[in-house]
Amino acid sequence: MLSLCAALCLPLSSMAQAISAEDAAFVAATVPVPSPPLRLSAHPEIRADVFKLLGYARGSYTQGNTLIARQVLDSMQPLDNITRTMLPDGRSVLASIDADTHGAWRAAMLFDPQRKLLALGLVNGHCQAAIGDATPACLPSTHAVLTLFLPPGAQDETAAPLLVWARQLPTMLAQAAPDQRQSIAAVEYITTRPGQPGWEPRDVPPGFPASLLHLLLPNAELHSSSSAGKLIAPAGLPMRTQAAEAGGEPMPDASITLRSYADFHWVLNTYATLAQGAQVKGHDDKVVFTGSDASGRYTVTLSEPDKDDGVFITVASWRTK
């Protein structure tokens, strides 16, 4: 969860003024990043920077009540729309867009000269989660919001270059009729709480042994859980767990699956420490730890189907009868 630091509503007229000297200088210093090897959303260092600043908090910006970090990364998708702006003081802005919205949703990262992330900007529509088959409810393009995420202790003024960045409309948006052209109607400053866990104690399913709680990484989000053969979360889906898939053995008495966006090998090394004494099998993108304690037998299954979806961590328990 993030705490709102301040919200500043800007007059629409101020955003409609002719390009200023500040804007002109910013545009002149902005160049495309040539032949990038990866999308920003898939770059390990970029992903690590985003999660270090935002953690596993959820919110409603480009999507309703989802990981804010994922919303930011989804707004930095295409290979051919990455720009870098070098500022006179050595800071830089790295930016990209969500191609599906032609850049209506877009994100930028402000770095210091040593490449430390200072602030992150997201142009969004404060979208609310869709109900049923309805499309998500978002603010109109003429009333877009610029959300600026800052680390604890940072001053709002730190993010000033991102105000200039947000005023530069992507090509497709700039070609819209004046009365339909995107306008930043409000700017809000958010102080992040990156250390807050991505799941809560109430997410632990009934019957899950207290002795295994140390195997649940706090810096991860809840993906699913089960107890006594019944799916607890998310509701409405058929029962199917990674633990049950591994050889057709009996369903676990309780299991929980978390998702981490950390590097797979970092997660693997972390569990090598957390599950000391357990047997380890697997390689590449799937590893299973099997161990036992006073409560019974347990497994920890780590899998990474692809780089974008993160590492799934399933901790399953079979109690001693």
What would you call the structural class? alpha+beta
Shape: elongated
The number of domains: 2
Unreliable stretches covering 5 or more consecutive residues: 1-18, 236-246
Mind describing the biggest β-sheet?
8 strands, mixed
Count of distinct strands: 17
Rg, rounded, reads 22 Å
Strand content: 25-35%
* Termini separation: 40 Å
Helix content: 10-25%
Q: Helix segment count? A: 8
- On the 0 to 100 scale, the average pLDDT is 88
Secondary-structure element sequence? EHHEHEEHEEEEEHHEEEHEHEEEE
Strand numbers in spatial order across the main sheet: 1-10-9-8-7-6-5-2
Protein model, in words:
The chain starts with a strand and ends with a strand. The longest helix is centred in the N-terminal third of the chain and has 11 residues, at 44-54. It is elongated and about 75 Å long. The chain is 18% helix and 31% strand. It folds into two domains: 3-191, no CATH class; 201-319, no CATH class. The model is unreliable at 1-18 and 236-246 (pLDDT under 50). Helix 3 runs antiparallel to helix 4 (68-74). It has helices at 12-15, 21-28, 44-54, 68-74, 160-167, 171-174, 242-245, 264-274, and strands at residues 3-9, 30-32, 58-59, 66-67, 83-86, 92-97, 106-111, 117-124, 144-150, 184-191, 221-227, 230-233, 254-260, 279-283, 286-293, 296-303, 311-319. It has 321 residues and is an alpha+beta fold.
